[in-house]
């Protein structure tokens, strides 16, 4: 027990700063991925064939290939990029593709009469989307979106393959150095868990707030 | 004679292979209340929806105050107008739907003032005053802060009417406004529509309410199979229908 304690104290500072890296990767790619997903979902449902083609090509490509490949691709092809940036780009684009499908489904689940009513009042397509359709999707959007963000949080561990010292890479380095497998990974696991649980709790609170609105 | 509010000539509408409107000619003057009756699938809702371009006519012309709605003719072909122009045209035509289509995330008042604020850029305070007056007019002053989910069908439809009126339209299009209502709620909606008609609003009403057609309509159109089979003053249509299909239909519904 005291050995575990001593080990934990030794690795904790570096582990915490690695956790910060993981958080940066997850938060930034989520913040960028959500608007990207929104744009791609609007592209997919738009009447413009070109926009539709671009959007569905993007979604198909990033959902149809392994995330690890995407990370390595951006890192390898754009050799001037740091591992962190390359991973961030891959995570953002990948998350945007999944988010796009979530949003498309939510938008299309709204009754067609809503768009017709808005347009019949003289609202533009954009106004109708922004003021009438999208606000109605929030509640339906939240559960699958939280799923996606939880997956994204854990997937940031793939950044280790391009040399980013995030939580997974740092843990692995400590394991290699100290041979204390359980005592190291248990902390990494706990940190991932806390992030996902916190995210879920936040979403639940938001869901309650949206529900109260009637 | 004044320019008609709506003038439809040679209107055809296909859904795929199915011809839903087979050549409609119809002129509606300012202040007129035109009631369209007919069996389900006769094309009456489609006709109404062509008036504000919710359905795009396959052939023919729909003019609103002398101006083609949603499209223009160029070298013998119909070309879409820019969306902004169509939006502008639609602000002058209010529409009331069978299923109300209120915005569920907005209160009754917010529903009513949404378009004046967003489309006309009306100042919030002024819009609220207008909204409250309109809700009062449809008998729902005390429901301004309620969300649609907490209103009855009849109340929702009255809010929807107020919402359409808020844009001060030149014509109101009613697409079976009472068909989704419980029988005991139909009266309150018809009453609001009667008041509107009495105030001189130009109205096109697709309905199964024969009492309303007879009492309020200036002109009744009987549609069947995508054509206007017979039209005339309500008393003429209801007491002395000329066409056998009209007689057959009226015998079933009256």
Write out the CATH superfamily name of chain A. MetI-like
How far from one another are the termini of chain B?
A: 36 Å
Based on secondary structure, the structural category of chain B is alpha/beta
Strand adjacency order, main sheet of chain B? 8-9-10-3-11-12
**Percent of sequence in beta strands of chain B:** 25-35%
User: So how many helices of chain A?
Assistant: 8
Task: From the alpha carbons, calculate the radius of gyration of chain B and give it in angstroms.
Answer: 18 Å
Biggest interface and residues each = A-B, 20 and 29 residues
CATH class of chain A: Mainly Alpha
User: H/E order of the elements of chain B?
Assistant: EEEHEEEEHEHHHEHEHEEHH
| Shape type of chain A | elongated
In round numbers, the mean pLDDT of chain A is 96
CATH topology of chain A: MetI-like fold
SSE order of chain A, one letter for each helix or strand: HHHHHHHH
pLDDT averaged over residues of chain B: 96
Q: Indicate the radius of gyration of chain A in whole angstroms.
A: 21 Å
Task: Output the keywords.
heterodimer; A: 214 residues; MetI-like fold; B: 254 residues; six-stranded mixed β-sheet; four-stranded antiparallel β-sheet; 37% helix; globular
Short description:
The complex is a heterodimer of chains A (214) and B (254). Chain A has 214 residues and is mainly alpha-helical.
Q: Could you characterize what this model shows?
A:
The complex is a heterodimer of chains A (214) and B (254). Chain A has 214 residues and is mainly alpha-helical. Helix content of chain A is 85%, strand content 0%. In chain A, helix 4 packs across helix 6. Chain B has helices at residues 44-51, 83-91, 108-118, 124-137, 153-165, 183-198, 210-216, 234-239, 244-253, and strands at residues 6-15, 18-28, 33-37, 59-64, 67-68, 71-74, 77-80, 93-96, 171-175, 202-206, 219-224, 227-232. In chain B, the strands form three sheets. In chain B, strands 8-9-10-3-11-12 form a six-stranded mixed beta sheet, with helices on both faces. A four-stranded antiparallel beta sheet of chain B has the order 2-1-4-5, covered by helices on one side. Chain B has a two-stranded antiparallel ribbon with strand order 6-7. In chain B, helix 3 packs across helix 4 (124-137), helix 3 packs parallel to helix 5 and helix 4 (124-137) crosses helix 5 (153-165). The interface between A and B is medium-sized, with 20 and 29 residues.
